[in-house]
Structures are given as C-alpha cells and as structure tokens.
Amino acid sequence: MRTNILLTSMIMISSAGAVGRPAVSTGADRLLTEHLGLLQGKRVGLIINQTSRLSSGESLLDALQKAGVTVSALFGPEHGIRGAAVAGEKINDAFDDQSGVAVYSLYGERNKPTAEMLKGVDLLVYDIQDVGARFYTYISTLKLCMDAAAEHRIPFMVLDRPNPLGGLVDGPILEDSLRSFVGIVPIPVVYGMTCGELATFMNASGWLDAHRTADLTVIWMTGWTRSMSWAATGLPWIAPSPNIPTPETMVVYPATCFVEATNASEGRGTLAPFFQIGAPFINAESLAVALNGRHLPGVRFVPAHFTPTSSKHMGEVCHGVKLEVGDRSRFRPVLTGLVILSELLGQSPDSLKLNHRWLGKLLGKGSVAGYLEKGGNPVLLDEEWEAEASGFVKKTRGFLHYPVE
Q: What gap in Å lies between CA 336 and CA 213, rounded to an integer?
C-alpha cells in the first residue's frame, strides 16, 4: 500500500531533466496542445498560483491569453497567486495589472467563490501543484471551488499534475467532527491520489455541498506513473509554498508538520524547513538518541542546532534533530511524526506545550494529544489506523487513472 517515490532535488523552475522533452505531459500542457477547443468561446475563471505553468516555464495565464482565450477572473489559494504569502497570512482581493484580470482571494474573508465573483465566468479551471498531504490546503480549495461550480451550474475542469508522494497512503481517515480548511474530506493524512483522481472521487462520493455533482472534466497527464521520481518526470519543480522549497521536503512534511501543534519549531525560517525540529529547551543529543532508539523504518536522526529567522523562536538558538531519510520505501511519515511528539513530551514534559485542538485537526483524530501526554504508544495507534488506510485504498482503486505498480 505504501508505494514510495524517490524525490530528487530540483531548484525552483530549473530541472536536471529539463533538457529535451519532459517524460510527463501535465494537464496544462495537454490543454494547450490538444484540448484548447474546450475553452473556445468561453469566459474562463482560473484557480491558479505560481505553480500553474507549462513545462516550458510559461505561465498558464499568459499561454491562454496568447492563444486568444478570454480569462475573466483569477482565484488565488493560500499563499496567493504568486505564492509569496506565508502560511496562514490572509490575502485580499486585488487586480492583476499585467494581465488586466481581477484576482479574488480564496484565503481571507471567504474560501469559496461567491455568486458575485462568478458573474461572467462560463468555465472554472483548476491548475495547482499539490503535495499529497490532506492538511495542505490546496485540496480544500479544490473541493470548495467544485462546490461553487456545482451550485451555480458552471462546468469545472481540473488540469492534472503529479502527486510528489506517488501512491503513498498513510495515516487515519479524518473524523467528521474535525472537518476544517486543513481537513475537508474523509481521506487519510497521505492519500496517494492526484488532484484529478481526487476530484473525480469526491464528485462520485456525494461529498459536495447538498450532495450535488459537478460537471467535471479532467485533462489527464500522459507518461506519469506512481513510482516515478520527480527528476524522472522531467518537469520543473516550482515551490508550491515558501516552506516546500524542494521535492525532498515533501517526504518529511507529512511527519514533521505535526510539530506545528506544539511550541517547538518545525524548521520554518531556516534553510531546511520540516527537515529539522527543535526548541531552546530541548537537549539535541538526548532527543536524537531516544528517537534512534525507537528504530523507526527508513529514517535516522542527528542532533541539530538552528536559529529561525521567522516563525516560532525567531532569533533564538533551537536545539533538536534533523531527519535523514535513507530508505523512502520504508519511511512511515505519520508514525514518525507521532513518535517525535511522544519523545518531545517525554524529554521536555514541563516545557513542551501540545495544542490538542490543532493536532486533532492536522491528524484528523481528536483524542490523540491526550493519549500521547499520558505516555501512550504511537505504534499501537498506527496499527489501529492501518485498517482505515487499507479500506481507503480498496475504495479508491476504481478511481485511479494512473498505473499502480
């Protein structure tokens, strides 16, 4: 079930595989070369950000306008259409001087397009690079935009892109009572589907508001398989948000993001966000020894010392550990993240603060924080959630468009 994907560093929009034609054609590439007629005569609303580019590096917006497509509105997710806003920063509506198109924020006062925003829109097109973790908010934007499209009877199109985590499925299914913008549908923490597959699955599962069904079209990729490394795709890597600078970051992100629910740093404001965690009150050497003594598969921990330039403990020296994932086929991100929390609580019981509500939202289970504070074993939780992940894999099998190796 946990199909791993080897991820190789790529810096922003440069790529070791960018010479010659990429092995993978994204939905955006195929829209421009094969399916442009689907947009002919329509006023198009684009749900995009800085990742919405063709494999050539040209932005989807520029390419469509050059092709004569009428783009009547732009909709921006968390971090904005340029990807410059930090996590959680509210974004206001604006006007894009370069394209002459109004920009509506879907991360501010409202997260769903309104009827007023959709005036003059005949087709909504979603093209955003996702990361494969449920609490990354782009799939929440996808779902809410599908809700709006179904409600206002506007056709909806998804331009598909690779899931950097391939077919990896890990962690528990979200509890209904914990639904939020960081967990909007009942899927595992790591769900092993592309945005196109997930949109198709949500549409067929009755998960849209009022059990409506969107008029959905997916422009699928060609050439992609779940076991592909990012380098093998030949596609440029464009950071989907400021703290996901490389594909490697995605390997550890579903593990160390849980540290967000504590007063320890998850490495934001450093050159290695999510690869290192720590706080001024932690003993780095003791924590590394304790974590390595848990013999977690595929990963080792080394003492780390860093000073964040932003976010938690800004300007303070933090002591903790850095994750080194040596075998990604064995690495278990959710289990690893919970063991890290367990050891942090054991090492610094008087200093570490655990936000029960936030951990519940991130993990999708509401009782875990108290369980860990009482010394509960994360391995037992992981074994319990294995059945949930297996059930999800079986349920989604018929919605997977790309090969499962």
A: 37
Positive or negative CA dihedral for 151, 143, 104, 61? negative
pLDDT tens for 57-92 read 999 999 999 999 999 999 999 877 765 565 666 667
Distance between CA atoms of 38 and 124, rounded to whole angstroms? 12
Residue with tokens 């990807």: 83
How far apart (Å, rounded) are the C-alpha atoms in residues 332 and 310? 29
Please name which of 256, 230, 229, 228 lies closest in space to residue 243, comparing C-alpha atoms: 256
* Amino acid letter, 29: D
Beta strands 216-219 and 156-159: pairing type?
Answer: parallel
How sure is the predictor about 4, in pLDDT bands with cuts at 50, 70 and 90? very low
Say yes or no to pLDDT of 403 above 90. no
Q: CA distances (Å), 74 to each of 46, 93, 106, 121, 304, in order?
A: 5, 10, 10, 10, 42
Q: How far apart are CA 288 and CA 273, in angstroms?
A: 18
How far apart CA 51 and CA 393 sit, in angstroms, is 28
Q: What is the pLDDT of residues 211-245, one digit of tens each?
A: 999 999 999 999 999 999 888 999 999 999 999 99
Instruction: Round the average pLDDT of the chain to a whole number and report it.
Output: 92
Buried b / exposed e along 272-297 (16+ C-beta atoms within 10 A): bbbbbbbbeebebeebbebbeebebe
* Dihedral over Cα of 230, 231, 235, 241: its sign: positive
Q: Which of 365, 364, 320 is nearest to 343 (CA)?
A: 320
Q: Report the C-alpha gap between 227 and 224 in whole angstroms.
A: 9
Matching residue, tokens 């894009």: 96
CA atoms within 13 A on the CB side of 302: 6
Q: Give the least confident one: 42-56, 114-128, 184-198, 228-242.
A: 228-242
Are 142 and 134 in contact by the 8 Å Cβ rule? The answer is no
Q: How many CB atoms lie within 10 A of CB 207?
A: 17
Q: Is 177 exposed, middle or buried (0-12, 13-18, 19+ CB in 10 A)?
A: exposed
Query: What does the alpha-carbon distance between residue 336 and residue 170 come to, in Å, rounded to a whole number?
Result: 11
Angle at 381 between CA 377 and CA 383, to 5 degrees: 115
Using DSSP, state whether 354 is helix, strand or coil. strand
Task: Collapse the DSSP code of 7 into the 3-class scheme (helix H, G, I; strand E, B; otherwise coil) and give the result.
Answer: coil
Q: How many other C-beta atoms lie within 10 A of the C-beta of residue 196?
A: 26
